Amino acid sequence: MVQGYLDAIKIHSNLNAFIDVWEKDAIERASLIDIKIAKGSAGKLAGVVIAIKSNMCLEGKRVNASSKILDDFESLYTATAVQRLMDEDAIIIGSCNCDEMAMGASSENSAYGPVLNAANKDYVPGGSSGGSAVAVQAGMCHAALGSDTGGSIRQPAAFTGMVGYKPSYGVISRWGLLAYASSFDQIGPITRSSEDAALLTEIMSGPDEKDATVSNKQWNLNLGTSPSKKKYAIIKEAMELEGLDAEVKEAFEKRIQAIKDAGNEVEEISFPYLDYVVPTYYILTTAEASSNLSRYSGLTYGHRSEKSEDLESTFTLSRSEGFGKEVQRRIILGTFVLSSDYYDAYYKKGLQVRQLIRNWTKNAFESYDAILSPTSATPAFKIGEKAANPIAMYLADLLTVHANLAGNPAISIPMTKSEKGLPMGLQIMGEMNKDQILLSIAHQLEGLIK
Ligand code: GLN
């Protein structure tokens, strides 16, 4: 099986989904696991081939979050999530290309070139975990890990026709994930079914003394089989969005009808903060990023400019040479919103709006089992289409950032394909820390909406 995937990776190398492929290690591990299988001592994921995003650490392997600032930097330790998969005998086949430092919605921001969508190579696969999504889409591994700060697992899953799941904040340890915005970042799987997503997440979840924000709970994510009827909400403002693509809208409405026909209740509710989610997300995440990324200074590790002469020029030149445009833009924006003159007007306001969104969301789940929406307002867009317009790119996150602002779990499942053959996803957002219920709903809806 490993050999088959390695061959597929070679055949599809033009998709640019991988940064590194660990061929030798994967084959060696496969032989060891074959012995374990023969002995009957193999783990739950024996022989499952998994790709990780290039912002996750695996000891002795290059980790660079698709950025030149780290380029050939080798991990000194292994991320908890990755270690837990390996402890169950998963085989990690390589690291996937993504937007630099997980900042983007198209996987075009990578220092290693854009990732192409296997459904149509003129189109982006979404981002930032675009390489992970394409690795699964094009049959180069069983499943892949992504990270989701504002939609980076769900939106590429939607654009490639895969399942992408962002667990509740705190389900999976962030130890060994290169930080973008720590109060938003979550690791999660990109798979072909919610069943696989549940299995991988349960294995990766649980307490970890190396991450103070991870929940102490032991998670049981076994999919429930109960066919009970559910009460769903859809957000009125999302359905009235000017930028909502007609094909996406029609496909979503059809699925809602099927869900109703199966005896579930669906009601439209008003979410008065929809206009504010993207600005709030970009104020808070850039603030956190400006702090997190200050560690890449050219002093301790990563790229150091050859032209540096003193402390100041080491900082300035190393960061200017090492970071791409989008990352620089966000560091500057984040530094601005945290500066003493603007802190109250932007950062503090952003925190207050985040609290309002959290309160609204908590309240909504007193009446509803889940909130349904398209994962993205449009199907995949063309490579280069939004690259020169950051605001248009930021709006691609409109329907996904809500779950990260509130911390709630959310999953994208495949809905259908557009006339051009581009996949679209349906997003299900669940109640905070009720991931098992969300996954069971996803499993049920997967069967209903195909
Ligand atoms: N597209 C969003 C951004 O650019 C989400 C990124 C993410 O979830 N890592 O920030």
What does this 3D model show about the protein?
The protein has 450 residues and is α/β, with parallel strands linked by helices. The protein has a single domain (1-450), classed as Alpha-Beta Complex (Amidase signature (AS) enzymes). Helix content is 40%, strand content 14%. An 11-stranded mixed β-sheet has the order 1-3-2-4-6-5-10-11-9-7-8, with helices on both faces. Helix 9 (274-292) packs across helix 11 (325-338). The protein starts with a helix and ends with a helix. Residues 102-105, 128, 147-152, 180, 285, 397 line the site of glutamine (GLN).
What's a quick, concise take on this entry?
By secondary structure, the protein is α/β, with parallel strands linked by helices. It contains 15 helices and eleven strands. It has a single domain (1-450), classed as Amidase signature (AS) enzymes, CATH 3.90.1300.
